[in-house]
Amino acid sequence: MQHWRWVAACGMSAIVTFLPCERPASAEIASPQATTAATEIATIQPSEAVESFEKTFGVHRGLRRNHAKGTCASGEFVGATVAQEWSRSALFQGDRIPVLARFSVGGGNPAVADVDSALPRGMALEFRLPGDTLQHMTMVNIPIFGAATPASFNDALVAARADPETGRPDPKRLNAYMASHPDAHPLAEWSRHHRPTASYYQSIYYGIHAFLFVDVQGISHPVRWRFVPRDGVKELSAAEMASVPHDFLESGLIEKLRKGAVLWDMVVYIGEPGDPIDNPSVAWPESRRHFVAGTLSLSSATPQHGAPCENINFDPLVMSDGIAATNDPILLFRSPAYAVSFGKRISGQ
Questions:
Q1: Which residues are catalytic?
Q2: What's the rounded Cα separation, in Å, for the pair 53 and 287?
Q3: What is the pTM for the complete model shown?
Q4: Can you give the pLDDT at residue 119?
Q5: What pLDDT is stored for residue 47 in this prediction?
Q6: Is pLDDT at 34 greater than 80 in this prediction?
């Protein structure tokens, strides 16, 4: 496999693809915490990032610019009171909280086959708390992000753009991107060892970013969370990847929920001094203290057109009292970028 093929398949995992692959000997992996001077000083506006999605995936009027293909679901969440030690959020009072969910396939093409490019799967949640307040969690089934800054993220989109003459990304541009963006390497390395998951409900969904839990004393605690399926995780075999239907994720989820609810445990990891809270491309050690903070139960699913989740802007900075953002530049960038995309799609653009 040529180097550029590895770049296309692995280096762009969080944004463009999610394919199992092997790294050739010529592909060097830099330090996960390394960044380039160009990336550090570059700036990008939310509207520019949205335009990059449009140039890479095309414009599909009235749809999200990323994670365009999706499925709505609904259910409830019951928080574990043990989490009250760390957060005063109403999410963890032990009440049954209604939830609207949206599962999705990454990228801006709503007609993409679920397995053709094996893009990351997403799970976005809107918790409807007492007092008409909301909590959003917007997650994907990869544990880290493929960029440390918005500028680096945009560079990946540009590098993945198809050459008009070949209809495929330019190998030289992809190689140049990987050589100058070591923040993309940790996810590329992780992706080498994983195949696409077999269903929406057999995936772990990661918050990717670090957040802050704020307790009743006003003390902040850095955390990361993930939703772990009670049904376990299953990745597709090579044979299954060659035989699954075009839209197996949505049909599989709808059929599964017709037979009964599907559960995920919300597992929260507590950060320690030195753990990065502003770089989603770097993972925390699995040995960090963690606990189950609640259980999500989804009981029904439907195609997204006309369904409740279709018009929700799952802004990850919509948070209840007791949960707060860190200074992660990717996290802070997502809210205004989502707003640009939302404005375009509700106006039919």
A1: 67
A2: 36
A3: 0.89
A4: 77
A5: 95
A6: no
Whether the Cβ atoms of residue 329 and residue 278 lie closer than 8 Å to each other: yes
Domain count, the chain: 1
Distance CA 266, CA 290 (A): 10
Rounded CA separation 120/42 (Å): 26
Q: Measured between alpha carbons, how far is 348 from 66 in angstroms, rounded to an integer?
A: 16
347: its two tokens? 């106006």
Please name the residue that has the structure tokens 């799967």: 121
**Chain mean position to CA 307:** 21
Q: What is the greatest pairwise CA distance in the chain?
A: 61
For residue 289, pLDDT beyond 60: yes
CATH number at residue 204: 2.40.180.10
Nearest to 150 by CA among 2, 298, 333, 1: 333
Mapping DSSP onto H, E and C, the string for the chain reads CCHHHHHHHHHCCCCCCCCCCCCCCCCCCCCCCCCCHHHHHCCCCHHHHHHHHHHHHCCCCCCCCCCCEEEEEEEEEEECHHHHHCCCCHHHCCCEEEEEEEEEECCCCCCCCCCCCCCCEEEEEEEEEHHHEEEEEEEECCCCCCCCCHHHHHHHHHHCCECCCCCCECHHHHHHHHHHCHHHHHHHHHHCCCCCECCHHHCCEECCCCEEEECCCCCEEEEEEEEEECCCCCECCHHHHHHCCCCHHHHHHHHHHHHCCEEEEEEEEECCCCCCCCCCCCCCCCCCCEEEEEEEEEEEEEECCCCCCCCCCCCCCCCCCCEEECCCHHHHHHHHHHHHHHHHHHCCC
C-alpha torsion 113→115→118→121, nearest 10: 80
- Please give the share of the chain, as a percent, with pLDDT higher than 90: 78
Residue 230, domain extent: 3-346
